[in-house]
Design goal:
The chain is mainly α. It folds into two domains: about 30 residues, no CATH class; about 120 residues, Winged helix-like DNA-binding domain superfamily/Winged helix DNA-binding domain (Arc Repressor Mutant, subunit A), CATH 1.10.10.10. The chain has six helices and three strands; from the N terminus they run H-H-E-H-H-E-E-H-H. Strands 1-3-2 form a three-stranded antiparallel β-sheet. A hairpin with a 7-residue loop joins strand 2 and strand 3. Helix 2 packs across helix 5 and helix 5 packs across helix 6. The radius of gyration is 19 Å and the shape is globular. About 10% of the residues are buried.
């Protein structure tokens, strides 16, 4: 609830911070860091859209995650060491590398998706379908606004 002693901006920031904290506690996948969960989930979806025999280009992963190449490399090293992904060098372009999920990685992604679905089902039960749809519409509207604002500043 909005605290009348705070301005709306402070209330929004507080609400997002509180949500983020609660979300991090409830969307955990045992044995994975949040960044690893995000990486594997993104790779799973990225591989569905980047049809290449060797997997997905590391450069595309960096762009989608919006993190530095060293950060992606560090995550890839950890995930490869644990047997979740494999990295392959492009035989035609030695500078390009590709990654894909292993069978073990696919199993983990299935658990991630199952956890996410369960949490969203629980949230829908808590809020009700109508309020959940309203929340989605408001978040979509806010995202559209922020994206347009960011685009206008890039010019």
């Amino acid at each position: 609830m909005h605290n009348p002693e705070e301005d709306l901006g402070q209330s929004v920031v507080r609400a997002f911070a509180n949500f983020k904290r609660a979300e991090m506690q409830n969307f955990k996948v045992p044995g994975l860091k949040r960044s690893e969960t995000r990486f594997l989930f993104m790779l799973h979806h990225g591989l569905r859209h980047h049809k290449h025999d060797l997997g997905m280009k590391v450069a595309d992963v960096t762009a989608i995650l919006r993190v530095s190449k060293p950060s992606v490399t560090q995550q890839m090293n950890a995930l490869e060491e644990r047997g979740f992904i494999i990295r392959t060098q492009d035989p035609e372009d030695k500078r390009a590398a590709y990654i894909q999920l292993t069978a073990r990685g696919e199993e983990v992604v299935a658990k991630i998706i199952e956890t996410f679905h369960k949490n969203f089902e629980d949230m829908t039960s808590f809020l009700g379908k109508e309020e959940m749809e309203r929340l989605i519409a408001l978040l979509d509207k806010l995202t559209e606004y922020l994206n347009k604002k960011a685009e206008s500043k890039e010019v």
